[in-house]
Design a protein that fits this description.
Elements: H1 2-5, H2 9-20, E1 25-28, H3 32-38, E2 50-54, E3 60-64, H4 68-73, E4 82-86, H5 92-100, E5 106-109, H6 115-124, E6 129-132, H7 134-142, H8 146-165, H9 176-189, E7 194-202, E8 223-231, E9 240-246, H10 251-270, H11 277-290, E10 302-304, E11 311-315, E12 328-331, E13 334-335, E14 342-343, E15 346-351, E16 354-357, E17 366-368
Parallel strand pairs: 1-5, 3-4, 5-6, 9-17
Antiparallel strand pairs: 1-2, 2-3, 7-8, 8-9, 10-11, 12-15, 13-14, 15-16
Helix pairs in contact: 10-11
């Protein structure tokens, strides 16, 4: 799958997009932009690693000499791009500037480049205007290839397996942190290479969409929001939320959970080429508001996902850029009245005639015990 995820042709496509955007070069340091273009998951070090993609001329990858073997063994070693090592006494920023020969124009810097590196490049290339590489890469990264969709499906299946195991971890008297430790291990056991986040929000903590794991003891009859995700060996991410309850849930919770289920379904069914992200957001929000819970839906309906858990497109009011096949994002409305809360989240991909879900566990409230 590696070659399909990071094809050699991508560098050429990025180079053409760089020229079309009127930039003289892209400079990509360790992070998702570099990995997207080259497949190299480089360590983020104070020593400069940088893929330079000029609008004209040959791209090259500058690496610290001690990192050269890792670069050669990564997918970047198969790209046909020149690997340029530098030694401890060299100035790698001057090296990049000298090889580019750039004294002016616009240079796109990786969106996640460290400020230290941004300033060093500014000093090395005083005549260049610095802009975000995202102005070029966002259009490419938003539209997932078939291989990327397959990687997201693999990630979705892996996190689904974890959710199926969650009920075995939930018992009265256990703390959120104890449950979180079990989920952490399960995420790795089910095929992820890293754990990105774990939310186990019981009772009132479930009304905080980004609740941290705590020593709160879980009690019977309390709803529990479990939002989990990680990164697969491919580099692509999972993210899925399901809501659980140990024993019978409160009546007021059951009432708004039924509304939430319908809102999440309607929002997913709205996804189709040409539909705007804000229309997907409105589909969930209008239904929740109409049922009297609008003030308790306090975040956007979704976010894009790929090599990052949060990336474009964002499913939110004001985003009128039409959806296209290959765009991948979460659909995750929530209702958070205060004493408890609920969220249902799937990752979906826009297809030629609708959408495909990467997550396929039941949306129903999971009653444990």
């Amino acid at each position: 799958m590696t070659r399909a995820l990071y094809p050699r042709e991508r560098v050429q496509v990025v180079q053409e997009a760089t020229a079309k955007a009127g930039l003289s070069a892209l400079l990509l340091t360790p992070g998702p932009d570099l990995r997207y273009v080259s497949g190299y998951d480089a360590l983020p070090l104070e020593r400069l690693t940088c893929l330079a993609v000029p609008a004209e001329g040959e791209p090259f990858l500058v690496v610290p000499r001690l990192e050269l073997p890792a670069a050669q063994e990564s997918p970047a070693g198969e790209l046909g791009v020149e690997l340029v090592p530098w030694d401890e006494t060299d100035d790698p920023y001057a090296l990049v500037a000298r090889r580019l020969g750039a004294s002016g124009g616009k240079v796109g810097l990786a969106d996640r480049m460290w400020a230290m590196m941004t300033l060093r490049f500014r000093d090395a290339m005083p005549g260049a205007e610095q802009v975000l590489a995202g102005t070029v890469l966002r259009e490419l990264r938003m539209r997932k290839s078939a291989a990327e969709v397959a990687a997201l499906r693999e990630a979705g299946e892996a996190i689904d397996r974890v959710h199926r195991r969650v009920p075995e971890f939930l018992r009265p008297g256990r703390t959120e942190r104890e449950v979180g430790r079990d989920i952490h291990d399960a995420i790795l056991e089910e095929g992820h290479s890293t754990v990105d986040f774990i939310i186990v929000g019981s009772g009132p903590n479930g009304a905080n969409p980004h609740a941290e794991l705590s020593d709160r003891v879980i009690a019977a009859g309390e709803p529990i929001v479990v939002d989990i995700g990680g990164q697969m060996p491919s580099g692509y991410c999972s993210d899925s939320t399901r809501t659980y309850c140990i024993g019978e849930a409160p009546a007021d919770f059951r009432a708004y959970y039924a509304v939430l289920e319908e809102a999440q379904r309607v929002a997913c069914d709205t996804v189709s080429p040409g539909v705007t992200p804000e229309a997907v957001d409105a589909a969930a929000r209008d239904l929740i508001t109409g049922a009297g819970y609008g003030e308790y839906f306090i975040h956007r309906t979704g976010h894009g996902i790929g090599l990052e858990t949060h990336e474009e497109p964002y499913i939110v009011a004001g985003n009128t850029e039409p959806l296209e096949p290959g765009m991948a994002f979460s659909v995750e409305p929530g209702i958070y009245p205060g004493e408890h809360g609920a969220r249902i989240e799937d990752i979906v991909v826009c297809t030629e005639d609708g959408y495909a879900s990467m997550n396929n566990t039941s949306h129903s409230l999971v009653v444990v015990g």
